[in-house]
Amino acid sequence: MMGASYYTLRPLIPRWLQVLARRRVAARLLRKNHSCWPICGSAGALPPDWQGWPGGKRFALVLTHDVELQSGALRCEELADLEESRGFRSAFGFVPLRYRTPDQLRDGLVNRGFEIMVHDLYHDGKLYRNWRTFAKRSAAINAFLQDWGTRGFCSGAMHHNLPWISQLNIDYGASTYDVDPFEPQACGVGRIFPYWVQPPDGEGRGFVEMPYTLPQDFTLFALLEEKSNAIWRRKLDWIAGKGGMALIKTHPDYMAFRSEDKRMERYPVELYTDLLDYIRSHYEGEYWLAQPSEMARFWRGLRPAEKSSANNIAAAVTLCASCKRAHAEGWLSQYPRNTVTGTCQRPTTP
């Protein structure tokens, strides 16, 4: 994970310099991980006792957006228009204390069939710095979850500590990924399916964690400077072939809706809408288009077969230290272990 000093100094570093520095790092990481990114073969293994997606669909599709700045919030309705015109609905994650998110915007999206998530609190890279910071901020996050009428959470910059996240009043999280060597927190759960997070003693309600499985747009177009969405298509085809969950996380902040928008980190929104058109033309009737809350309800209702004991997740070699510890302690499983509800216990602090 990028050190605390980086996030302290980041506001003082010009954005163009941040992007250039990350491009150099990304080029090195691409050479190092070319054999396991964007596809890690072992991530396609089916969960034990897998019975398939609702309606017998071939694979699942979840569309999400992280809105990082006010400029992104101003693009949300236009992005929603583009999706709606193609028959898609998505989920938007807003940062409560980084910029203004009008009630009218959130309510308007929900009324149109879109979904709202809480995306961190400040998006400053400090949420998991220590338990004291997280405990204080988690209270504010829970207040926004209630105020906004959502049970979904996603971390800023994909930082995560799953046992700590279990303290939030959520049904689902979206703060991990199947494989992505370019993220600040080097990790990877090595699966293209959701999984279950709950204290090992069975107390607490637990939540469904949904890793993103298609590369983020910022990685492809800002860091690696791709000029097409061929990597998206290739990964999508592979996920469809494996019968997994294609979850994409894009950012309206980085989408250029007009040709005169030439900022270095922005890419033509057509690269995203072309992916949607590709999904429709190649897989019409074969995918289950699910909002994150629908996916969470579905996964929460799954259980291992009655005589099966295979409910543990394999420990991918790419897990970060936090996830390795959570796995070893028994926090992670394929499906819910029981239906116990109640107040989550405080996780062990590192």
Give your account of this protein's structure.
With 350 residues, the protein is α/β, with parallel strands linked by helices. The chain has one domain: Alpha-Beta Barrel (TIM Barrel), CATH 3.20.20. The protein has helices at residues 4-9, 15-32, 70-73, 76-84, 103-111, 131-148, 162-165, 217-223, 230-242, 270-283, 292-300, 321-329; strands at residues 59-67, 91-94, 115-119, 152-154, 172-173, 195-197, 207-209, 245-250, 255-256, 267-268, 287-289, 332-333. Mean pLDDT is 92; it is low at 339-350.
In short:
The chain has about 350 residues and is α/β, with parallel strands linked by helices. It contains 12 helices and 12 strands.
Topology record:
Layout: H1 4-9, H2 15-32, E1 59-67, H3 70-73, H4 76-84, E2 91-94, H5 103-111, E3 115-119, H6 131-148, E4 152-154, H7 162-165, E5 172-173, E6 195-197, E7 207-209, H8 217-223, H9 230-242, E8 245-250, E9 255-256, E10 267-268, H10 270-283, E11 287-289, H11 292-300, H12 321-329, E12 332-333
Q: How is the CATH topology named?
A: TIM Barrel
Helix content: 25-40%
- The counted number of beta strands is 12
Strand portion: 5-15%
Approximate shape: globular
Distance between the termini: 15 Å
Poorly predicted runs of 5 or more residues: 339-350
Name of the CATH homologous superfamily: Glycoside hydrolase/deacetylase
Give the structural class. alpha/beta
CATH class: Alpha Beta
Overall CATH architecture: Alpha-Beta Barrel
Features:
single chain, 350 residues, alpha/beta, TIM Barrel, 10-stranded mixed β-sheet, two-stranded parallel ribbon, 12 strands, 13% strand, globular, disordered C terminus
